[in-house]
Amino acid sequence: MLYFCFPITELISDRPLIGRTANKKEFAYFKLDKNNANIVLEMIKIFGMLSGSHKFDILKIIDLIIVNKKD
């Protein structure tokens, strides 16, 4: 199991989340961009090391990304 912890301040929402309880079915988003790309890549590498089946899954996902990028 891989847990990825990040500060709540990194979440994007309609209203600030700090200092209040979130409403039911309220969503916040974690923006993936060039500023946090390294963290995401490290997480993918770690996930691939957790087990043989995880490694297989990650390699398949990378293969699909490479194939679709060529088209």
Task: Summarize this structure briefly.
The chain has 71 residues and is mainly α. Helices cover 45% and strands 6% of the residues.
Describe this entry's structure for a reader.
This protein is mainly alpha-helical and 71 residues long. The chain has a domain at 26-70. The chain contains two helices and two strands; from the N terminus they run ββαα. It has helices at 37-49, 52-70, and strands spanning 11-12, 29-30. The chain has a two-stranded antiparallel ribbon with strand order 1-2. The chain is elongated, with a radius of gyration of 16 Å.
Using only C-alpha atoms, the radius of gyration works out to: 16 Å
Tell me what portion of residues adopts beta-strand conformation: 5-15%
Series of secondary-structure elements, N-terminal to C-terminal = EEHH
Give helix % range: 40-55%
Give the overall silhouette. Answer: elongated
Mean pLDDT: 88
Unreliable runs: none
Number of helices: 2
What about the largest sheet? 2 strands, antiparallel
End-to-end distance: 34 Å
Give me the secondary-structure category. Answer: mainly alpha
Write down how many β-strands occur, each being a DSSP E stretch of 2 or more residues: 2
Which tags fit this structure?
mainly alpha, 71 residues, elongated, 45% helix
Topology summary:
Elements: E1 11-12, E2 29-30, H1 37-49, H2 52-70
Antiparallel strand pairs: 1-2
